[in-house]
Amino acid sequence: MPSTSTHSTKAAGAAKKTSSGKDKGLADLFLHGIKDIYYAEKKLTKALPKMIKAAKSQDLIDALTSHLKETEGHVTKVEQVFALLDMAPKAVKCDAIDGIVAEAEEILKDFGKTSAADAAIIFSGQAAEHYEITRYGSLRTFAEVLGYDKASNILQSILDQEKAADKKLSEIAEDRVDYAAAGSDSYEDGNVLSDGEPRKEKGAINWRLWQ
Ligand code: FE
Ligand code: ZN
Ligand code: FE
Fold this sequence. Notes:
This protein has six helices and no strands. By secondary structure, it is mostly helical. Zinc ion binds next to helix 4.
C-alpha cells in the first residue's frame, strides 16, 4: 500500500505517530539519532577526563581540555534540539560509542604508561571524533530535510567543533613529524626515532616517531 510521507509535518509529531508502527520514516531516524548522540556526548564527558589525565604533552592536554568543555556544550546543544522538538531529553544506548570508548580504555590500559601514550590517545580520540562527525553530518542534513532550520543550525555548529577537534589532533601528531623532519632525532618527552626518514603524509600520523 502506498505510504504517505509525513516528512513535511513536524518531526516530533511524525515520530510520535510512527514510532510504534512499522512504517518508520526519516523523522523517526532523526529522533533516534538525536537520542543516540545525546548518549554519546554524555559518555564522552566521562571518557575525556581519563584521556587528559593520561596525556603527556601539554598541547594534547590543552586540546583535550578545551574539547571537554566543548563536549559539555554539545550535551546542552543537543538538549536544545530536544526542546525544539518539544521533547524531554532522552538518551538511547549507542553500541558504536560504547565500543569506541571501551577500546580507548583498553588501549589506555596497555599504552597509557608507555612512550606511545599520546599516540594511543590521539589514535582513540580521532576514532571518537570521526564517529561524531558522521553522525552530526547526517543529523544536520536530516534536520534540514525535515524543515528544522534551528535544529540544523545547532547541529552544524557542533559539527564544526568536532571537525576542528579532529583537525587539532592531526596537527598535534603532525607537529611531531615536523620536529623529526627538522633533523632532530629526539622528541621532548624522550621518544627517540629508531631509524630513517620520517614519512610525511598530510593528515597521517607517523607511527615510527613513537617507537
Ligand atoms: Fe561532541
Ligand atoms: Zn549508535
Ligand atoms: Fe567530539
